[in-house]
Design goal:
The chain is of the alpha/beta class. The protein folds into two domains: about 55 residues, no CATH class; about 220 residues, Spore Coat Polysaccharide Biosynthesis Protein SpsA, Chain A (Alpha-Beta Complex). It has twelve helices and eleven strands. The chain has an eight-stranded mixed beta sheet with strand order 1-4-3-2-5-8-7-9. Helix 11 links the parallel strand 10 and strand 11. Helix 4 packs parallel to helix 7, helix 7 crosses helix 9 and helix 9 crosses helix 10. It starts with 8 loop residues before the first helix and ends with a helix. It binds 2-acetamido-2-deoxy-beta-D-glucopyranose (7 copies). The site of one 2-acetamido-2-deoxy-beta-D-glucopyranose has 5 residues, from helix 12. The site of one 2-acetamido-2-deoxy-beta-D-glucopyranose has 4 residues, from helix 5. Belongs to the glycosyltransferase 31 family. One of its GO terms (biological process) is protein O-linked glycosylation.
Length: about 375
Amino acid sequence: MRISSQKYGFLVLLIFPILWFIAPCHRPSLSVKYLSPQKKTHGIHKPQVMSTMRATVQQTLKVVKPIMVTKKPITGCKPAELPDQDLYRKILQDHEKFILKAPKPPSPNTTFVVFVIHSVNNTKVRKEIRETWLNPNESKVIRNGSAQYYFIVGKPRNPENLFESDVLYTNISEIYPNLVLKELIAYLWLVKHKKNGQMLKIDGKDTVANLDRLSSQVKWNEQKISCLLWDPVQPNRNICSPWYVPLKHYYKPVYPRYCGGPAYMIPIRQLKKLLSHASNHSALVVEDVFFTGVLAFKARVKRKNLGEIFRTYCPQRKAKTLKIFQRRAIACSKSKKMVTSVLSRHCYNRKRKEIWDLLKNGTCT
Ligand SMILES: *[C@@H]1O[C@H](CO)[C@@H](O)[C@H](O)[C@H]1NC(C)=O
Ligand SMILES: *[C@@H]1O[C@H](CO)[C@@H](O)[C@H](O)[C@H]1NC(C)=O
Ligand SMILES: *[C@@H]1O[C@H](CO)[C@@H](O)[C@H](O)[C@H]1NC(C)=O
Ligand SMILES: *[C@@H]1O[C@H](CO)[C@@H](O)[C@H](O)[C@H]1NC(C)=O
Ligand SMILES: *[C@@H]1O[C@H](CO)[C@@H](O)[C@H](O)[C@H]1NC(C)=O
Ligand SMILES: *[C@@H]1O[C@H](CO)[C@@H](O)[C@H](O)[C@H]1NC(C)=O
Ligand SMILES: *[C@@H]1O[C@H](CO)[C@@H](O)[C@H](O)[C@H]1NC(C)=O
């Protein structure tokens, strides 16, 4: 049922100024600041069992306050830009129109297709990533072809410069609300060319993965989405927030459970299934909620919480020394084997190379 914003208009006027002061309008996967209250309550330094982890997540979710709907932009803020729904429909009709240059599709033998979501200008960072966690000299599954990677980027300034062979160049301008569209194009391209295996989505700016370990933890024929799974949260109805979602695009009071945006793994067969529901929904700026929450829920694709493997939340933020960082960042099993395969840099403010070194040869003591 839709909430009539007129009917509640006066309430909004009354309540909004109060909420404006007390409500931090952040979502878990997109914001570092969001997690700061957790720092006060829960500092997780040690390897932990999943129940602790869930408790932490729930603690965190309590921070999200309901935010009322406003029709007019609040003075002093720029209303958030939303994904272009016309463009969204056009992509669903024919995604190939929006591909400037496609790389060679993955081999049928490949079991893990890695999509590194990136911005077209970031060639330096792409080089760094290719030299670290995607380096065939460092990763066995990249070397033997059981994992294959692609960078997904937007429209370059100079359309002549499409020379990187591992990049899928889309025709989408690189603004935040378009992220969901850029990913949509890549996902449609993938399901057209490959029927089975897993698609691992990684936020290339922030997140580092140990593919060798990860591919031993998630079976190639797993049919659930694997990720750090968040409990339902309320849509952000603050028109000034970059994560603002208007009622006309999503009217329910809460989102379904969804996977943290920095990294999630979707079985390609299930990806195809959930994309088949896309035309019945509006594209949401919160791409993680959209694909792994709204569409996965509609398509009845199951999700599996592997929060210790996908450590894309921040158990303890900035660690002063390398040693403290190394101890805090990873989860270990009882037999002192490292469990964590994916880490987000924003939690630790560490260099990509340092995160990779830890994921590669860090030890549990
Ligand atoms: C890029 O997208 C626009 C629509 O937004 C389309 O008209 C144009 O043909 C596309 N260009 C290429 C090269 O695909
Ligand atoms: C896939 O693997 C089979 C054997 O396992 C091999 O014969 C074939 O050449 C491989 N195909 C590609 C495209 O690598
Ligand atoms: C890429 O960088 C150039 C300047 O180096 C800038 O003018 C352009 O807007 C950037 N493009 C994107 C898509 O960020
Ligand atoms: C892998 O190692 C070889 C030999 O040492 C080297 O020539 C090559 O550049 C390395 N590849 C990468 C991506 O670092
Ligand atoms: C590549 O290596 C992984 C890890 O050892 C192994 O599980 C997989 O079967 C190998 N794939 C191929 C195609 O050799
Ligand atoms: C989309 O919505 C229409 C009309 O409500 C319905 O008939 C159709 O089955 C829906 N498609 C999917 C894939 O849910
Ligand atoms: C991991 O190995 C690299 C060399 O590949 C080394 O420079 C680094 O210090 C090692 N890191 C740890 C945490 O052992």
